[in-house]
Give the backbone structure.
Amino acid sequence: MSFVKRYLIPRLVQYILVTFFGLTAVFLFPRFLPVDPIEQQLSQYQTFGVYVSPEQQEEMMNTLKQLYGLEGTLWEQFMVFWKRLFTGNFGPSLSRFPTPVNQVIRNSLPWTIGLLSTTTILSWIIAVLAGGIVGYYRKRWMEALDILVMIIRPVPYYVMALILLILFAYVFPIFPLSGGVGIARGLTLSWQTILSIIKHAILPALTLLIVGISWQFQSMKLIVQIVRSEDHVWYSRTAGVDDRKLVFNHVIRNAMLPMITQLGLQFGSIFSGTLITEMVFAYPGVGWILYDAVMKADYNLIMGIMCISVIAVTTSIFLLDLIYPFFDPRVRYR
Amino acid sequence: MGKIKAVFYDLFKDYRFTVAFVVIVLLLFLAFLSVFSPYHPQRMYQVTRGLPPSLEHPLGTNWLGQDVFWQLTFAIKNSLIIAVVAAFFSRIIAVIVGIVAGYKGGVVDRVLTTVGDTTMVLPFLIILIIISMILKDWARHLSNLGLLLAFFSWAWDARVIRSQVLSLREREFVLVAVLSGMSTFKIVRKQLLPHVLPIVFTTFINNMSWAIGMEITLAYLGLGIDPTVPTIGTMLQTAIYRQALFLGLWWWLLTPIITAILLFVALYWLSVSISEYLDPRARFQRIGLKR
């Protein structure tokens, strides 16, 4: 009971608060911008040279306001915003009118989630294992690996993606330049389609893996170096515990805990990180759609994706907090 | 003077610092050379276009009729200006927020940390893209883009400074200062700031690197700096946009890429070696005084 009171409830409260403030920021943010989407839309019609009578213009303005959720006072708009959120209906997409925002997101979300969840989890596992082993043994040849990581790590994601794209799609044309699946290939369930999807995903996945591993490898290595000089490890070693057992059961297990928190943050940056990946490789996911929406001032779509992103971030951090006690008995028995 | 010499003597023991220092000095020298450029940085068709590297044009010329070497000198200078402006202003925000939140505590602290936490869950790249789209004309200038970037990179470092100040506040020397009637402002300036400055210094370098990376990313999306003003980002983007790869002008594309890698690696190694030097535990490990 005290576990629930001491651990669970504060985290639940924090989760709800941060989600609430994040979503409020998403709501407020476009409204503070000096651009009025409605006026923009109307002036766009007027540039076509169509004569619109004042009554018609008034009516158009009202319809547009309704579509954007911009009716009434700020407070009323805020209520409409929450109502839309809870019913899961963000209205029609304005650049792809009349397709609803939900459907646009639903079409592109599987691509993003498929690519990013795989690479995030895989890079975390590889980084934890590699960082743990290198941090513990510190052999001579591992120094080379260390220097390699020291060179890869500071390079920003975009530059890294560009280098790999030039290398493996142009200099050595092994992988396709762009796209999520071969051209003129419907999304039917066949071996060839699946193979094509995998082939298109390898290069973006590789860039994400390299960057993700090098980031986490370093922090894992540092933590392991601290853990290995702790008394219990030293004691186990003198007591004759098998080295391999010591590394996996004692050192890596203990050093893993801060890394779990980092995994939560990693999941959080998925939505921001995916944008550049999908732009560089022309991958048909959420980032691609989002950039398109920003360029076309599609406010409903931007709001929809940003809301989902905020909820995904806070929820993944909260879920990790929930499973954390299973890894760390100190939290469980306090 | 002797003290500075001793510090550098210790730092140069770390090969990473030596390498990074040499690279940075070299890049600064290149940036300084831009003063003597015989060509205007933005004007096109000043030389024969598409020439490979030669004695006259050390890094060749591009398809727009510009000398790549002299373009590069301007690019390094401009990218560094953006980076320094961004790092300087974001450090100021981080220090103020961190110290106020940590030292004042209570409601002020809770409000500031919630604001910081909320900015961390927001998809910042998207917001940055939207803002730089709206302020397109304003963000075209070097220092303005630096200012814009500064507002996006203080939250994490403010958190680090806050936790540092939280522990400093409980220390005896601060208590002595409070009891001897020192004014709050003076306590902050004389007692807290000197302890916070090392963090500010290393995060300054990290933040410069982040700002240069953001500039490159924004330039790729067609945002940020005026595309005719050479920075590392716009140079790279122009080369890609004008199909340098398919025209076979590899020196045009490779120059900004290699410069960017050198700059990022040098800045990172500088910050790692300095923060290891400032953290005595890591320094002992280096010297060989490990358990």
Q: What stands out?
A: The domain at 105-332 of chain A is CATH 1.10.3720.10 (MetI-like fold). DSSP finds 14 helices and no strands in chain A. The mean pLDDT of chain A is 80. The interface with chain B takes residues 17-18, 21-22, 25-26, 29-30, 33-35, 150-151, 153-156, 158-159, 162-163, 166, 170, 229, 234, 268, 271-273, 275-276, 279-280, 290-291, 294-295, 302, 305-306, 309-310, 313-314, 317 of chain A (CB under 8 Å).
